[in-house]
Amino acid sequence: MAGMRKGDVKLKSLQKKVAKLVSAAESLTILFDQEETRLKRKAEVTRLKLLRSAILQQAEQERSTEISASIGYNQGRLIAQSAGLLITVLSKNNKVQSVARSLLEESAGEKRTFGIILILIDKKGIPDGVDVVCISRLGQESNQSEAEVINRLKKDGSLLLSEENFSRLIDKLIEGILEGCLALPVSIQTLSQILTTYPLQFIHQNKG
Fold first, then answer.
1. Which of 11, 25, 142, 169 is found 20 to 30 A from 177 (Cα to Cα)?
2. How far is it, in rounded angstroms, from Cα 103 to Cα 35?
């Protein structure tokens, strides 16, 4: 009997040790999971920050290109107007004067806009569906007004944001990721809900 009692005590002691080991293993598993989650969120936040930096840099490059194009275009118009005016004054040939007047009318009447740069988010959402678009250039290429281009892109299901509002949106996504409410990728539907929920003027509003 004494031997059986000693055996029971040892068994109970062993069971307690096993229970402690199981509890410790479960605690370690929880800690590992928490650390994995923390590292995953940190990586996603870093990815969003890098995305924002790259997109804003691309937007700045597009703006510089548009400024150069605008300067070249305006210089071309000025040269055409000056040449047309000079020909009109100096030439006595009616046909030449007629061509010069047409040149003057075309250069005076033709006006192009430059530098309307927006951030586009297509149906792939963030991070894979983000791009920089020059609305004025798309309008020139498609022979559409800026308003028509914007409406067409929105009908295709894309979101259009200013650079400032894109940066604000990224801040909101980072906040959601750190709180555990969001994770990458963020769908276009979720982005639309965020833009609808928060009272910031994220979506570009055409003034025309």
1. 25
2. 70
Question: Tokens in use for 57?
Answer: 């840099």
Residue 192 token pair: 């639309």
Strands 159-161 and 117-121: antiparallel
User: CB under 8 Å to 157, separation ≥6 — which residues?
Assistant: 122, 123, 188
Give pLDDT tens digits for 152-188: 999 999 999 999 999 999 999 999 999 999 999 999 9
* Pairwise CA distance, residues 189 & 159, whole Å: 10
How far is 190 from 161, CA to CA, in rounded Å?
15
Contact at 8 Å (CB) between 178 and 41?
yes
Q: Are 44 and 184 in contact (CB under 8 A)?
A: yes
Rounded to the nearest angstrom, the gap between the alpha carbon of residue 173 and the centroid of all alpha carbons in its chain is 12
Least Cα distance to 65 among 157, 137, 15 occurs for: 137
**Cα–Cα nearest to 47, from 143, 159, 206, 173:** 173
**Residue 46, Cβ density class (10 Å: 0-12 exposed, 13-18 middle, ≥19 buried):** exposed
Query: Is the pTM above the cut of 0.85?
Result: no
Query: Which strands sit side by side in the sheet containing 159-161, from one edge to the other?
Result: 130-134, 117-121, 159-161
Residue found by looking up tokens 């982005």 in the block: 191
